[in-house]
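U., I forgot to send this yesterday:
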Amino acid sequence: EINGRHEITFLPRGTKDTAVNEVLSAASKWMADECDGEDEESSAFDDCCTCGLGFVENRMNYEEEPAGLYVEDCIDPREMRWDRTTTKKNMSNARRLSRVRKMPLSDALALFPGKTVQQLDATWADTGGVDYPTRTIEEKRKRDADNSSMQEYDDHCEVTIVQMQWFERETYWIVADVQTNTKAELSDEEHSRFSSRMKVLGMPVHSAKMMRKVYKQAWLGGELLQKAGPSPIKGKFSWDCITGEFDKKNKEWFGLVKVMRDPQMWANKWLSQILHILNTTAKGGILAEISAFDDQREAEEGYARPDTITWLSDGSLSGDKPKVIPKPGAGMTEGYLGLMTFAISSIKDVTGINLELLGQQDQNQPGILEAMRKQAGMTVLATLFDSLRRFRKNVGRSRLYFIQNFLSDGRLIRVTQPDNVAMIPLAKEKTTGQYSVVVDDTPTSPNQKEANWAIIQPLLVVFKEQLMAAPQVFAMLLEYSPLPARIVDAIKGFVEKAQNDPQAQQDKQLDRQLAVAGAVAIIGNDQSTAELNN
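Result:
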């Protein structure tokens, strides 16, 4: 996932111009760079591969910058809750989401000043979880009594805060203005008032009743901490989810670890069996008659010790039938080793992650075969990467909302252009409108570079003369090569210097004039020959 990064671009919707909006796309990349969004998204994808769910929160942070900074934060999936009817990929049909978060009491008091411990702590939602032991009712009462008498709080005192988001359906009206050929959206109250006024004026009302989703948010503790208000992002949840495989029977998502458990249990069982056989047959037992030893108790204690002498009765080691013989041992069977090897190899077989994907294939094999096996492994994991692609589209929609409503205040952003790095302002007139979010492979990612360069190499031979005449195109092609960035920048600098050299420009112009003059001479000669022939 890290080697095959995706980039988010924005295409205008509803206009004839379908070119990519470079300002929005550059702003999205700048936002990801400023908050390390790619790392947070990779962490969420890691959680998805492990347990089947990964979450990222999109929000604005005003603590470090008064104007506000965009933040993408990976969330522990064990903190998230959702409604039972959520079954679609990336929880696209979720009706509500909530985050049950444990935080230090000092942080909770900073978020909701003036509240007491009992008002802040959502004991009804404290289900414990993996890292927290289940407490009895008496223990909770004792904790509440101790917290109520505390005057100073430290980080060891934690409370549970619930952040919940959901959507409600409300009606609205679309009213058409025939004279100006426009339409407006009105609420029920506004439409009633508008209709009464138009009725007084004796004018008809052209309207239609519609339904829409309105997303809301509330904070809960021991009581309602903050009244229900609009969601941080209009039209969607502020949490973007990436899901793994779905178990339709148990109504839950799962990752790669779940299918690895059974082979690991088999491997543990057979390894324990082999160790037991080795331990019990390392010093084989014996079969002995009662009169074989002088002291039976001493024989039991010292027989297995190599630094002691076990005394036997006379005649025990001689004669046709000795009184002491070793027990017949089972020995190490190949079946157990084969079963353990099968179980260990099944761990990677059930997930589809082969040795080529892990980079652990130590045998010499052709590069084409290596690439084909990697592609086969990616095919097995295609559902995870399909969820990742949809997840990045949702992240792009969140970024678009924050760009249009919070970041388009004239602030300067850094934009990396093909020839230089520039600072451009984010203005309202350049970011307004509706856009479609497109997610595509980043052309400069390592895997994509190798694929692009394999296609470009044959073209370099075919268009050799044209590239020599236009070296700037050759320098542009080098950006998609696996060469180090320093070498590519050095070549691009050399090409730019050659283009800006006055003497080189004069020589190039002279070559063009000579070429034009030669072409004119050839045309004139052909015309003269044609006239003589006529």
